[in-house]
Amino acid sequence: MTSMFRTVMGADFGRLHPQLQRRFSVGLAGGEACTGRGVMDRVWHGGAFVRPFLMLGGTRNIPVPRPGRGVPFVIENVPYLDTFGRETVSFVRTFDLPGRSRRFDAQMVLSPKGDRILDYLGTHQHLASELHFRAEADGSLLIRSGEHRFREGPVDARVPELIGATAEVRESYDESAGRFRIRVRVVNRYFGPLFGYEGSFRVTYTDIDQCGVRPGLRPVREEARA
């Protein structure tokens, strides 16, 4: 068995920087969880029209509803079996913004065919995005979102482009600083940039048999469809 990221990337996984290969080998087979701690140099938002949507999403830990600079943050990548017996890897980001901390929750699940990863967003997994992974020439990792779907009860509907967005994540390893660098940008086709963040962090790895899954890390509701 290999990590879900190696499974979907195939031979392309070997083109990643070795530190990225280890970080994205997190999974039940490897037996490790990964925790990153660092600083976001900038958390930004688009125009004022974006704020109501970000505030609404913030009630379900989907976007980061407040901008800021020099924001301490933690990202927790912990593998576990969900309610339906599927291997899941958490991507829970906590931003220490002034006044109170804010979370941006996501849980990644491998599709039944093993050909794609679904990114379930928020505390109730109402939003699902297909993710596409690619190794760049410099060993960095590019992740782009594909189709978005809204799932609740019997509803399973594609999110229209008018209100949907495309996310692009670039993650690299800076050898001179000994840190991972990340840049996230979310853009709507019609309204332009919505929000994003960029910064750097260091990671530690923990044996999952020792650390387990801390309370509150898993979503309140888990979606069966993948």
UniProtKB/TrEMBL annotation:
Residues 16-201 form the DUF4166 domain. This is DUF4166 domain-containing protein. It comes from Streptomyces viridochromogenes Tue57.
